[in-house]
Each structure stands twice: as C-alpha cells, then as structure tokens.
Write a structure and sequence with these properties.
By secondary structure, the protein is α/β, with parallel strands linked by helices. The chain has two domains: 182 residues, 3-Layer(aba) Sandwich (Rossmann fold); 169 residues, NAD(P)-binding Rossmann-like Domain (Rossmann fold). 37% of the residues lie in helices and 16% in strands. An eight-stranded mixed β-sheet has the order 3-2-1-4-5-6-14-15, sandwiched between helices. A seven-stranded mixed β-sheet has the order 9-8-7-10-11-13-12, with helices on both faces. It binds 1,4-dihydronicotinamide adenine dinucleotide (NAI), pyruvic acid and magnesium ion (MG).
C-alpha cells in the first residue's frame, strides 16, 4: 500500500503522524511510504531520517494526498486538507467529529473512509489511541494551569504547592480517567490539595487505592461539582463519553461563585468542552477570561511537547497502521472489532452513533459499512 504522511498545519501543531521508525516498519512490510518534506521537523525528525528509513520525500502536501491510498496524520484534517480527500482513500487520525459539524459534512462529502484514533477501543474497555495523548495532556494540565495562576497571566497569584505556613492550592479534577489520573499525579506531586470527581465508583475506588490519601475522591453530581468549584483555585475538565459531545458540567452561573483569578483548564475541549464558557484556543493564544475566571482550552495540548507526544502516539498507532496497510481497511476492521469501533465515516455515511446523536445525523453501523 502507498502510505502518506503530511506536515500538520493546525496552528502550533508540531507532532507528526509517522515517525522514521514507524516508516521503517511499514517499508519492511513491503509498503511504500511518502512523507511531505519537513513533516517531522517539529518533532525533531529530519527528511534524511525518513530517507534512511526507506521512505520517499514528497515536495508538498498535495503530492502526498494525490498519491497515498492511506494518509496517517495527528490532528483532524483542516478545510484545505478535506478538499484533497477522495473516495476510496483511507484517513487515519484524530477526528473529534461530535462538536464539529463542518468537518463531519466535508468528510461525508469526500467519500473517503475515515478512522478516528479516539474511538478505537481495546479489550479492557479503554481507548488505546487516545490514552497516550491523554497521558501527555493530563501531565501538562497542572503545569499550564500553574502558569495561568500566576498574577502576570491573570491568575490569582497562588503557588500550587503553597509554602510552609501557607496552604497549597486546591485543584479539582472532573473525570478521573487517563487525563484525570495523570493530572492528579502531577498536581499532587507539586504539592497541591487534589479532589477528583467521577461518575464511576470503581474508578474512584481505584484512585483511592493508588493515591493512598494523597487525594480526595467524590462522586460527581451537580451539588458536589458546584460546591467544589466554588472552593477551587484550579479546575481541570477531564470527562469523556467516548465519541460524544462532552457534558457541560460547570455552568456560567457557577463561575460567579468562583474565586477571582481561579483557573479552568478544559482538556475535554476537543470533544466540545465540559465548561459552559469554554471555546477552543491555540498554543499561541491559550487563555481568556470570563467573569474573572481564566480559561485554558487548547485542543491539541500534546503539540506543545511534540517530540515526546509523537513518539508516544507512534508507539500506539503502529500496529493499527500496519494492520490497515497489510490487510486493507476492510479486512483489518473485519478481523478486529476494536479497530472497527474507530470507523467514523465511510463512503458518505456516518458510522459512529454518538457523533450522529450529537449532530442529529443518520448513522449506519460499522458492520453495515463493511457490507455484511
Ligand atoms: N485537549 C487535548 O489536547 C486533549 C484532550 N483529550 C481529551 O480529554 C478527555 C478525557 O480523556 P481520557 O481521560 O482519555 O478519557 P477516559 O475515558 O480515560 O476518562 C474519562 C472519565 O470521565 C468520567 N466521566 C464521564 N462522565 C462524567 C461526569 N458527568 N462527571 C465526572 N466524570 C465523568 C468517566 O467515568 C471516565 O473515568 C477527552 O475528551 C479527550 O479527548 C485527550 C488528550 C489531549
Ligand atoms: C487527543 C487529541 O486531540 C490530541 O492529542 O490533540
Ligand atoms: Mg484534540
């Protein structure tokens, strides 16, 4: 198969969909790999690294989109990229369609087969292609939140860990999955007082066991959320209902009860955000203020630590890239129901039920898309 990889064009996105070592594996499996010139530079990989791995370098993105049977990326395709997708072509990347009707419309119109990293599942009920970036974004969340809490950035001037004789910051994390757990580890490690809210009692038990008193857990309902948000210096939004638009758990009314200069970090922004007042921001301009509360809502947080993130993502995607290339998308999905869960769009039809529910669009099942 001809596998293509383009340079990411989302603002300040420095990750790349294929590492030179992934390209080398694909070449060893008998595939041709075409990389846009400069695609790996932001992650520290040169064109020469890819050439040494057996890949070919294309002068521009258009050449890659034209030649590749499958394009492997990181972020959702931008409008100009969507215009280059064609029927029969496979796109393997993050899509986050539920909050994005314009992208959904374009992917349906393209006739392409679009497999989203974030809805591929595993045997344990996890999301193996979201998890590595959730680990990264979770670890980053207290770090960027601590920066926003600094006075010069509009925050309330509170040091996360406090100092002897002065209380630490209170960090409230809504959602104790991969992002929430990673964020809790870093926030607790920086000395903050941490509370995690989740709807899953097994998850709260797990956190209680693992953190051994370093954090407090609480069942997530409206009353608990309102009470904790009012006491927080930082709230980290880390909920997920796979494929679906994030529920709005912190309302605008709650903002009025918060401390002036408190910080909201909405990691769930890629699924639309779990705070009513969230809207996506970029690394260039990451924060804004509403009712005296600082919001950080960058939808591609791992792009800030592109080298680490590219390697972590590449480790997780490689087996799926190889399966798709070796077998073709149809047989790869037929033989792996977890990969089939990643199928969001095929030949003008939507195949992810939560996306259909969020956007009010008809869906067919992945099995129907396979023609079974
Ligand atoms: N902004 C960015 O750059 C990035 C964003 N993300 C996003 O972060 C979000 C979280 O991802 P993961 O931690 O991997 O998901 P996960 O599935 O591991 O964890 C989500 C948790 O939310 C909990 N939850 C669901 N509804 C809830 C509610 N009403 N109240 C409290 N908890 C609730 C679930 O029980 C689960 O424990 C996703 O939207 C993901 O796409 C992930 C990586 C990067
Ligand atoms: C998960 C995601 O959207 C990201 O890593 O950018
Ligand atoms: Mg994202």
């Amino acid at each position: 198969m001809k596998i293509g990889c383009v340079r990411e064009i989302k603002p300040q996105e420095y990750r790349v969909g294929l590492t030179p070592s992934a390209a080398q594996e694909a070449v060893a499996h008998g595939h041709a790999v075409l990389i846009e010139a400069g695609a790996g530079i932001g992650s520290g990989f040169t064109d020469a690294d890819y050439t040494a791995a057996g890949a070919q370098i294309a002068a521009d993105a258009a050449a890659v989109w034209a030649a590749a049977e499958m394009v492997v990326k990181v972020k959702e395709p931008q409008p100009g990229e969507r215009a280059m997708l064609r029927p029969g072509q496979v796109l393997f990347t993050y899509l986050h369609l539920a909050p994005d009707p314009a992208q959904t419309h374009d992917l349906l119109a393209s006739g392409a087969t679009c497999i989203a990293y974030e809805t591929v599942t595993d045997r344990k009920g996890g999301l193996p292609l979201l998890a590595p970036m959730s680990e990264v974004a979770g670890r980053l969340a207290p770090q960027v939140g601590a920066w926003a809490l600094q006075k010069a950035n509009g925050g309330r001037g509170v040091l996360l860990g406090g100092v002897p004789g002065v209380r630490p910051a209170h960090v409230v994390i809504i959602g104790g999955g991969v992002v929430g757990t990673a964020a809790a580890r870093v926030a607790a490690g920086m000395g903050a007082h941490v509370t995690v809210l989740d709807r899953s009692i097994p998850r709260l038990s797990y956190l209680d066991d693992v953190f051994m008193g370093r954090l407090t857990t609480q069942y997530s309902d409206r009353a608990a959320t309102a009470e904790l948000v009012a006491t927080a210096d930082m709230v980290i939004g880390a909920v997920l209902i796979p494929g679906a638009a994030a529920p709005k758990l912190v309302t605008r009314a709650m903002l009025k009860t918060m401390k002036p200069g408190a910080v909201l970090v909405d990691v769930a922004i890629d699924q639309g955000g779990c705070f009513e007042t969230s809207h996506p921001t970029t690394h260039e301009n990451p924060i804004y203020e509403v009712d005296g509360v600082i919001h950080y809502c960058v939808a591609n947080m791992p792009g800030a630590v592109a080298r680490t993130a590219t390697q972590a993502l590449g480790n997780a995607t490689l087996p799926f890239v190889l399966a798709l290339a070796d077998k073709g998308w149809r047989r790869a999905c037929l033989e792996d129901a977890h990969l089939l869960d990643g199928l969001n769009v095929h030949a003008g039809r939507l195949t992810c039920a939560p996306v259909g529910a969020a956007l009010g669009l008809p869906v067919i099942s992945g099995v129907e898309a396979l023609g079974l």
